[in-house]
């Protein structure tokens, strides 16, 4: 009985997380109450190398996606959102490419020194998680 309540609370929390996403076109059609393991939390490890990075230098944005301690090799969506601090900076949303073992990568570079907020929007079935990190780009 207690377990059911906890499960429902967790589901509601995930629902809130999904609704709180800035991206409005998420597909919620897969949200049913059948728990076949697909409702286990999706764990996303976002890493950026190097940080800080210089203008025009290559930077690797890596997203490792796991669920039930298993690598997720078929995530529905892994989108990298890059938000500059500067008002004239470029806001970008680009899909990351799966390179194997649940690792999704976006290689990019920056034209303008700034502090950027990097968000990885990861969708696996009905689950959505979106960790965020800051990246400093220097001249
Ligand atoms: Cu999101």
TrEMBL record:
<dbReference type="InterPro" id="IPR032693">
    <property type="entry name" value="YtkA-like_dom"/>
</dbReference>
<feature type="signal peptide">
    <location>
        <begin position="1"/>
        <end position="22"/>
    </location>
</feature>
<feature type="domain" description="YtkA-like">
    <location>
        <begin position="42"/>
        <end position="121"/>
    </location>
</feature>
<keyword id="KW-0732">Signal</keyword>
<dbReference type="Pfam" id="PF13115">
    <property type="entry name" value="YtkA"/>
</dbReference>
<protein>
    <recommendedName>
        <fullName>YtkA-like domain-containing protein</fullName>
    </recommendedName>
</protein>
């Amino acid at each position: 009985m207690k377990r059911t309540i906890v499960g429902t609370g967790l589901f509601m929390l995930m629902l809130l997380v999904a609704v709180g996403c800035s991206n409005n076109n998420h597909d919620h059609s897969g949200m049913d109450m059948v728990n076949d393991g697909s409702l286990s939390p999706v764990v996303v490890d976002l890493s950026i190398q190097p940080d800080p990075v210089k203008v025009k230098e290559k930077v690797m944005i890596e997203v490792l996606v796991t669920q039930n301690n298993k690598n997720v090799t078929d995530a529905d969506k892994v989108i990298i959102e890059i938000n500059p601090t500067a008002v004239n900076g470029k806001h970008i949303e680009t899909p990351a490419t799966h390179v194997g073992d649940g690792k999704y990568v976006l290689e990019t570079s920056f034209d303008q020194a700034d502090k950027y907020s990097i968000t990885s929007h990861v969708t696996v079935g009905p689950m959505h998680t979106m960790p965020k990190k800051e990246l400093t780009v220097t001249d």
